Fold this sequence. Notes:
Layout: E1 3-4, H1 18-40, E2 57-60, H2 65-70, H3 72-82, E3 87-92, H4 96-102, E4 110-113, H5 118-134, E5 139-142, H6 148-156, E6 161-166, E7 181-184, H7 191-202, E8 225-226, H8 229-243, E9 251-255, H9 269-282, E10 287-291, H10 297-307, E11 312-314, H11 321-330, E12 333-337, H12 340-344, E13 351-356, H13 361-364, E14 371-375, H14 398-401, H15 405-420
Parallel strand pairs: 1-8, 2-3, 2-5, 3-4, 5-6, 6-7, 9-10, 9-12, 10-11, 12-13, 13-14
Helix pairs in contact: 1-6, 3-7, 8-11, 9-10, 9-15
Amino acid sequence: MSAPLPPASEPVGLPVSVDLLQRADRIVFAAGCLFLTWLRALRREPDPDTAPQPRALLFVKLAEQGSTVLAGRAIRRAIDWVGRENVYFMVFAENRFILDVLGLVPEENVFTVPTKSLGSMIRGTLAALREVRRRKIDAAVDLEFFARFSATITFLSGARWRAGLHAYFSEGPYRGDLFTHRVLYNAHIHTGEMFLALVEALSRPARGLPTLPWVAAAAEPEPMCRAAPEERAKVEGLVREATGLERVPPLILLNANASDLLPLRRWPIERYAELAKRALAQLPDAHVVFTGLASEAEASARLARSVDSPRCHSLAGRTSLRELLVLYTLADVLVTNDSGPAHFATLTPVSVVTLFGPETPTLFGARTPRNSVVYAGLACSPCVNALNNRQTTCRQNACMQAIEVEAVLGATVRAYTARRTPGAR
């Protein structure tokens, strides 16, 4: 069943320094987890031999919009358990959009934490916690991997039953002992299944964990989002203006990530230009459109000009996130690195070619049969994972540089041809 797109446009990016947040998590909140673990030892916890019977459930997933898409199955499991009106979510304000797109959690049940400054983030977190405690939410699931900040929030939520990942004998980051249901991180199952396992574990007695005799059912595609006629007309107008055509032509979208937001995941930007040139030469009816944030608009425009073709354009910075999803519904193929757009695309009919390097598609690949992965598979890749708090000493991203244009072109042409086959749409 199609889900309507939400009406609001939303901010993008994380104004608070990511490095600052990571250092605070490693130092300040590690100490906080230690203190709260001591505090927990002084209070009475639920009977570990009794399965929880919560009235309401809170998910804590602050960052990464793509991971929020992967949490869809876990959210549905919670809805089946406690009812949609009793499912809540805490998220950074700039990541709320994709949660609204999914349409699973009632809008009034979403607690947003602003990140415009460190002060607003602290105040927003405290305000959200006050509201959570006021509503007497009695179960909470921490969907962040090994972040101490989210573990602290989950504990301070006042929830009687709390589930989260615990390192046990692995070398995972220390986050104390704040959960009633401590789940072992499994690096061999997809992230979507790992999120689902957290809810499944919470539905059982805590005694016996981390042993979890349960196997996730096969994943089903996310419901497609649908745009209102006026939304589609607006985006079609942008495309017609860019292309100079009366009708929207066949489109190949390139998300070049021209900013420095995710430098290790970036494919060399000049290879996107080469890919565009070769795709246009091989597919005479197609137009290539570069997409991106407003901060990437100038770089993307230069990239489009470097292709030197009347069939290559840039719409970076000209669409909201909502309009970007509408653009995906008009396109045939999206080529992107491992980032939010690869997962957003699963909510639309577009075919996706995803380039992986520092992380593995086994755990983070978009859950759609329309996703084609290009991955060099170097011995040092993946180097970023949950157990090292997604930190790496690599500064050269050899894994992304090892991906040749020829491999991406082949995947793109195959996806485009399949989409253009009669009856494929």
